[in-house]
Amino acid sequence: MTKTIKWEKDFDRVLTLARAENKMVLLDFFNPL
Amino acid sequence: MGAVTYPNEKVVDFIERHMVPIQVLFDSQPLATRFNIQWTPTVITLDEEGKEHHRTVGFLSPEEFIPSLMLGVAKCHFDREKFDKAISILEDILKKHPKSDAAPEAVYVRGVSLYKSTHKADPLKEAYKRLQAEYPSSEWTKRAQPYGLL
């Protein structure tokens, strides 16, 4: 089974996860068109 | 990015191990205004407080994207004066991705990190010499030129 990136959607939750997991945040702004 | 780089297995693995990823639409508020988004793709490396440390605009292949992310993480540590951690990642970039576009900046930031942690000028001069030898046409070689006079 192919692995994919598990994108978060909530910015505050991301910061909480980053603190808990001692990781940096990758913030991607995209255009679906 | 969505068609080529993000599905790449090595990219998925790197992000899973080292980053918390969030993807939002280019006009998603308040983030688009907060980070002054003018074009896509824009990829920003933030620390856990939401402070920006590194940004790229435009497509990056998997071979360029991973060292760019590594550089972003290293710059998070550098900006917070965690020079040992920054140097370790920067050396990893130079070992694993010496041909990448992130490599010349890695040489530069490594030199500055060593200078800031030792207060000796030699690493700056060595960084310039290395840039001149290995990345002669890089903008980082031009930026380091004064260090050649030390």
What's the SSE pattern of chain B?
HEHEEHHHHH
Helix coverage percent of chain B: 40-55%
How do the helices and strands follow one another from N- to C-terminus of chain A? HE
CATH overall fold name of chain B: Serine Threonine Protein Phosphatase 5, Tetratricopeptide repeat
Query: How confident overall, as mean pLDDT of chain B?
Result: 96
Portion in strands of chain B: 5-15%
Show unreliable segments of chain B: none
Name of the top-level CATH class of chain B? Mainly Alpha
Q: Compute the number of helices of chain B.
A: 7
Give the distance, in angstroms, between the N- and C-terminal Cα atoms of chain A.
27 Å
CATH architecture classification of chain B: Alpha Horseshoe
What's the Cα radius of gyration of chain A? 12 Å
Question: Which terms would index this structure?
Answer:
heterodimer, A: 33 residues, alpha+beta, 21% strand, B: 150 residues, Serine Threonine Protein Phosphatase 5, Tetratricopeptide repeat, two-stranded antiparallel ribbon, 3 strands, 12% strand, globular
Topology overview:
The complex is a heterodimer of chains A (about 35) and B (about 150).
Chain A lengths: L10 H11 L2 E7 L3
Chain B lengths: L8 H10 E7 L5 H4 L7 E5 L5 E6 L4 H18 L3 H14 L5 H17 L3 H13 L4 H5 L7
Antiparallel strand pairs in B: 2-3
Structure explained in plain terms:
The complex is a heterodimer of chains A (33) and B (150). By secondary structure, chain A is α+β, with helices and mostly antiparallel strands. Chain A has one helix at 11-21, and one strand spanning 24-30. Chain A has one domain. The model of chain B has no long low-confidence stretch (mean pLDDT 96). Chain B is globular. In chain B, helix 3 (62-79) packs antiparallel against helix 4 (83-96), helix 3 (62-79) runs parallel beside helix 5 (102-118) and helix 5 packs antiparallel against helix 6. In chain B, strands 2-3 form a two-stranded antiparallel ribbon. Chain B has a single domain (9-149), classed as Serine Threonine Protein Phosphatase 5, Tetratricopeptide repeat. Chain B has 150 residues and is an alpha+beta fold. In chain B, 40% of the residues are buried. Chains A and B meet through helix 1 and strand 1 of A and helix 1, strand 1, strand 2 and helix 3 of B. Strand 1 of chain A pairs antiparallel with strand 2 of chain B, so a sheet runs across the interface.
